[in-house]
Design brief:
This protein is of the alpha/beta class. It has eight helices and seven strands. The protein has a single domain, classed as Rossmann fold. Helix content is 36%, strand content 23%. The longest helix is centred in the last third of the chain and has 14 residues. The radius of gyration is 15 Å and the shape is globular.
Amino acid sequence: MKKVKFLFHSLRNFQEMGTVVRSGGPMCRKMTQFIDKKNDLIIMELGAGDGAITSHILNKMSPDAKLFVFEINPELCEVVGRIQDDRLILINDGAQHMEKYMQKYNISQVDTIISAIPFLVLPEELTNEILQLSRNVLKTGGQFVQMHYSKSLEKKYKSIFGNLQSYFVTFNIPPGYVFRSVKE
C-alpha cells in the first residue's frame, strides 16, 4: 500500500489502526529479530495492517512454519492477501477470537506472537482480553512482541506476562518501542 493511501486510510480508521504511518524498516527488523527459525513453527501476527511486518516475519521463518495473521479491516486484508506464501494463513477477524482459529487449525500452543494492535486506543477490557489470551496460548518460553509509540502500557505487560524487555527504535519514523515478554 502506498504511503499516501495508507495515510488517508489511517486517518479514516484511526481507532482501528492507531497510527498514520506504516511500520518502517527499523521497526519491522526489531519486531522480527527475536524469531527463532528452528523453534518458532507457529507464529501469530495480530494487527497486520498492510503487511509491512508480515513480509519481514515470513523472511525470518523456516519453510515448515505457519504464520496466522489477524487483521480486522477487510481493505487491509485484501492488501495482505496479495502476499504469495503458502505459510501465511490470513484471518479477517479480531485477535480476541484466536482460540476459535487455533481449534479450527488444530493448534494447541503458539511459539511467538507479534502484535501491532494499537492497544492504547482500544477499550481497556478488550486490551486485557487479548493480552491475557495471548499469554494463555503461548507455550512456556514462547514470546509476545508488541510495538508502541509510548511506554504507557509497560506495567500492563509486566503484570500479565511477569516480565518485559523494552527496546527503543530510534531510526523508525516515528521512533517507537518494541516490548518483548517471554512466558515463564
